[in-house]
Amino acid sequence: MPFWKKMFNSKQAVYYPRAIVQGKPVETEVIARDLAKISTVSNSDVQAVLGDIAGVMHTRMSQGKSVHLKGLGYFRYVLDTKGVKDLADFNFDKQVQAVRIEFIPERSKLSNGMYTRALVDSDTLEWIELSPDTEDTTPGGGDDSDGDQGENPLG
């Protein structure tokens, strides 16, 4: 069950619900054990493949491709840039501020014509409100920061 807290945005002076991450991230070894339990592949085989996935994805995305992991979604490089008013001032190296990975969850069409995203099944999620004094381990914390996640982006 996911968790949420009431948060205050001082720039807009509004309260809003915010999803909260509890505790430390689930590490690759745990995911590998879980996958091994529901498949015919051993834990060590799953870990070996998962350990190489980042490098393989980087190689393909650096070729200008997006990467689609069936049932999960799409990954691609995107740029954080600043613009210039005059084309004569255009300089790619100076204007690119960061390279990020964009993730778009896979979607499936439902019988009613609407879509649902991979990893999100709203019918089975039961959100639990945390008390205001509960420690917030969500990336960026509970402030109005820009969400810079540092070395460990999810916990």
Descriptive report:
This protein is an alpha+beta fold. The protein has a single domain (3-129), classed as IHF-like DNA-binding proteins (HU Protein, Chain A). The protein is 21% helix and 28% strand. It contains three helices and eight strands; from the N terminus they run ββααββαββββ. The chain has helices spanning 28-37, 43-61, 92-95, and strands spanning 3-9, 14-20, 67-69, 73-81, 96-105, 107-109, 115-117, 128-129. It has a three-stranded mixed beta sheet with strand order 2-1-8, with no helix packed on it. It has a three-stranded antiparallel beta sheet with strand order 3-4-5. It has a two-stranded antiparallel sheet with strand order 6-7. β6 and β7 (115-117) form a beta hairpin. The longest helix has 19 residues, at 43-61. It is extended and about 60 Å long. It starts with a strand and ends in a 26-residue tail after the last strand.
Strand content: 25-35%
Distance between the termini: 17 Å
Count, helices: 3
- Summarize the main sheet: 3 strands, mixed
- Gross morphology is extended
CA-based gyration radius: 20 Å
Q: Domains counted in the coordinates: how many?
A: 1
Compact summary:
This protein is α+β, with helices and mostly antiparallel strands and 155 residues long. Helix content is 21%, strand content 28%. The chain has a single domain, classed as HU Protein, Chain A.
